[in-house]
Amino acid sequence: MSKICIRKETPEDYYAVEELTREVFWRMYWGEGQTICDEHLLVNKLRNVDAFVPELSIVAELDGKIVGHIIYSKSRVVDESGKEHELLTFGPLSISPEHQGRGIGKAIIEQSFEKARELGFRAVIIFGYPDYYTRVGSRLASEFGITTAEGNTYDSFIAWELYSGALDGITGKYYIDSIYEQMTQEETLEFDKKFPPKEAFVPISVDVLLERLSPDARKAIEALEAKSLAVIATKSERSLRKLPGVCDETIKTIKDVMREHGYSWGK
In this structure, which topology does domain 5-181 adopt according to CATH? Predict the structure, then answer.
């Protein structure tokens, strides 16, 4: 494989980056009421908010083609006294489907972390796929005494210290820029017109998994109230192993079904 070039994003990269993001997230989990992914619009909007950190908008290029991108914005933890601690969040992180599994994601994360340290940032917290990000050193945000803005914590709520002890003494609720909550489906559909037409994705029913599970395991997965495999993909292997009726055979079946339908899942 040719050498990957990891560099800062330029304005000339914007369209290619947004198109890559659209391709990567087209089949990912969508929230209730969504009919199309909006991550490519999010990338576009993040570049225009005060929280955006342009030095950390980084692309991976291979043979003149952009195959990866990561984008960062400032976030904060607010403790019980009301004191704010500035941190970072990243995302979307997009790696071209045909180039996944080659270490590009890890390389772009590690290089962006190095740059973030140079800029004086102390930590990164995101909502992401825990089974993937544990491979690059993530920890549960709850281990640092940090919760979501609503006071909750999840396996998908994860953190990295950019240097040892960076989060010592920092606890509280985590907040990201409001732009993440301001996009509408109508706006996304209009924005999507700037790209080549793409066949709408119909989420794959969770029934294709349920029919291959034992009765006890099926009951446990049904309790998640997930309607599609895309939702199952957001659950960590760790969290599913805790469910009653889920055993090693169940986990293997889930991995097999997810792989058959184009999802990488599990440790």
Answer: Aminopeptidase (3.40.630)
